[in-house]
Amino acid sequence: xxxxxxxxxxxxxxxxxxxxxxxxxxxxxxxxxxxxxxxxxxxxxxxxxxxxxxxxxxxxxxxxxxxxxxxxxxxxxxxxxxxxxxxxxxxxxxxxxxxxxxxxxxxxxxxxxxxxxxxxxxxxxxxxxxxxxxxxxxxxxxxxxxxxxxxxxxxxxxxxxxxxxxxxxxxxxxxxxxxxxxxxxxxxxxxxxxxxxxxxxxxxxxxxxxxxxxxxxxxxxxxxxxxxxxxxxxxxxxxxxxxxxxxxxxxxxxxxxxxxxxxxxxxxxxxxxxxxxxxxxxxxxxxxxxxxxxxxxxxxxxxxxxxxxxxxxxxxxxxxxxxxxxxxxxxxxxxxxxxxxxxxxxxxxxxxxxxxxxxxxxxxxxxxxxxxxxxxxxxxxxxxxxxxxxxxxxxxxxxxxxxxxxxxxxxxxxxxxxxxxxxxxxxxxxxxxxxxxxxxxxxxxxxxxxxxxxxxxxxxxxxxxxxxxxxxxxxxxxxxxxxxxxxxxxxxxxxxxxxxxxxxxxxxxxxxxxxxxxxxxxxxxxxxxxxxxxxxxxxxxxxxxxxxxxxxxxxxxxxxxxxxxxxxxxxxxxxxxxxxxxxxxxxxxxxxxxxxxxxxxxxxxxxxxxxxxxxxxxxxxxxxxxxxxxxxxxxxxxxxxxxxxxxxxxxxxxxxxxxxxxxxxxxxxxxxxxxxxxxxxxxxxxxxxxxxxxxxxxxxxxxxxxxxxxxxxxxxxxxxxxxxxxxxxxxxxxxxxxxxxxxxxxxxxxxxxxxxxxxxxxxxxxxxxxxxxxxxxxxxxxxxxxxxxxxxxxxxxxxxxxxxxxxxxxxxxxxxxxxxxxxxxxxxxxxxxxxxxxxxxxxxxxxxxxxxxxxxxxxxxxxxxxxxxxxxxxxxxxxxxxxxxxxxxxxxxxxxxxxxxxxxxxxxxxxxxxxxxx
Length: 918
Description:
alpha+beta; Sodium/glucose cotransporter; Neuraminidase; four-stranded antiparallel sheet
């Protein structure tokens, strides 16, 4: 660019410091709000590194787009368009989209085979042990270092060219705010900033597109741009392009770049732990659509920005508004990625420079945060925990993560300054990175995809491939130029040869080494399942249960074939079906075809905006906390009786993932399974009259489903025992206990309320022959905080806090794990029908937000209490006792299905009612 910059140094410092501070403070504030109001605990290492594996499709897509939108995406794609013409944007976009689409298969396999992994490297270690683990630690860290280097070198060069700001200062200030909010908020903060940054980038790209093709006084229409590109093709035709035109897909240098691009980017996706972090953080149903939608949405970004700004630079370089007029951009400026900023200044002046600086800042810092999390995860789990402190607590791991974020961020600033002073540009790094890292792509992917890849193959193939690729790169450079330097090694042909050898050499090495030195037996993938969650103590409340995990694995297994099909189809379309007919025919765009091409880019960008900007908001709208007040009877309701379509005083209820309801049919002395939408139930336990034989029950009160053993556990009240029914066989788990309510925690520990001894006890799995541990009450009957008076139903949350319906005290108590006394969280103001009172509380459930739902038996209603509030609110019922659809009559228990619908055991109406969520 010209020596005079469109912005002052003050502008540069103001934008970097101002936006960095705003985002750091904003994300810290948002993190505090999530912690305070939604229970998001970033002091949990699991939450910090994995967001508890529950991120949904829209935010996954947004995060993928953000992580893949480097400074190079915007800068280098525009430079490619400036150099090769209309083919450049497509080669850049398609050559870097297919990796994201193909990665969805690996993402599904990762979540399916290693559901509790924190990093991809843990999977390598679980399968192959220490040697392979160390090899991949090196390759993955080199990937993160290379990617971060391109971010900082490219962005700092643009900041310097636009404002004259010192390169060293820019390299330090760019990551500063990102370091702060990533350190505080962890991966959840990166998801939130990814969303904000990506939306801002998309808006600015659309602003540039409409300026170039609609409103600009110097361009203003596709027709005007087309005419200027035709003129440019005549003045300085593109070597290797059909007819020397900027308006053809047949471009020899563009095709070479395409191969370099596609190979190099396999490494930066498949070896960047950041993409595995996002797959790990995704909920099982979100991994596939998140990556596919993210890839499709990302395609539009380089495609449109380069079609707009790269071609605008070509069109305007013979216009006096062009900053370097009458000269073209130098090769050094093009390699440094200054095409975009030059075109922006030519189009809009200072406003264009500011918009460019903001856009590049957003892209850099958002992608930078993903790199910080990726490196901190590797250092924390794969280096510190694996080799220095295997029993490290969650708090210790958080400390290591924080230190890593700071040290890596500052270290990369210093490294990027060094690269600047030895004249290593963003373009050079972008083309070279595949040579360095891509030899580990195939062995890494086969770790999850092929059970016969041997340990020696995965250990030796990456370093052997690296040696071959670097040798091929340097030899080709020597053959071409008879000298080796930064300038000569940066040639397209040399880079092409090195990248191809890096990616494809393991195709030779892996099968040969696996044949020569095979593992004793084919791998069964079992050890990957052994990777464990980190126990963070009482604040870690959102881990998936074992039942959730198993359902997730089943779901992912069912989607695997579809993922492979969609990956192959989209890759074929982007790499072969769309571009090569136009390449082979050497078609030169007509004006109308060019107009349509530009229109497709703009339409695609609006589609990307919908995926990235609108869908996450719609998807994450808080669900209504209201239910239809007129219920549907889903079980019983045919009068009191013992027929299979009848119930007789239904008591405790439970539900499985298929919405089958299990009912303690108390006066029929049986447990009935009522399948979803069935007209009658089927007896699965008891039903042989009242008695104490093993095939009989005696007024059972509660039933729960143990999803780990696929059995039901029953509180057999009058027989004073807890029994388990499994595959038509029964066994007594606990006897001599006045069992009323049952609950099971995420570890499979069983909790039982003893209404006579006024206590709740906990038993470990398979240790039912002892007396259990008292976790609430047990100090005699009374109304003090350390006492209970006829405890009925119980609920256990993820941190093993126990909620007890304290029947005769008309209250619900919460006993934190190992506490000596409880706290009143609902009622406690005597019996009555006011909103601060309960009358004979029964069933109780607490949701993820800490809201307490309790059955108010004596008032024929279900109440919701928020912990710390002085009164509750009526959720359903409360319209007097009766048998109308908006009435309950002595309700006993409640439950929620996966869709949030509320079910109530309507005791005196002999039915189960379903209140649909609004």
